[in-house]
Hints:
This protein is mainly alpha-helical. Helix content is 52%, strand content 7%. The chain has 3 helices and 2 strands; from the N terminus they run αααββ. The chain has helices at 9-22, 27-34, 38-46; strands spanning 52-53, 58-59. The chain has a two-stranded antiparallel sheet. The radius of gyration is 10 Å and the shape is globular. 12% of the residues are buried.
Amino acid sequence: MTPNIPKDPVMLLSYLNTQLRDFYPTLEECCRSLNLSQAQIEETLAAIDYHYDNTKNKFV
């Protein structure tokens, strides 16, 4: 992951949901634009029981 995103999973959740709400129509586009590993993001947030919902375009 890039150094300018939160390392803490709860803070990462908040950061990504804000990015998705305000700037990106999909998680794939968000990860591509921010140069993030989508698989790593999903794995990190799954560890705190949050999963990406593509119909809502956020982690729930």
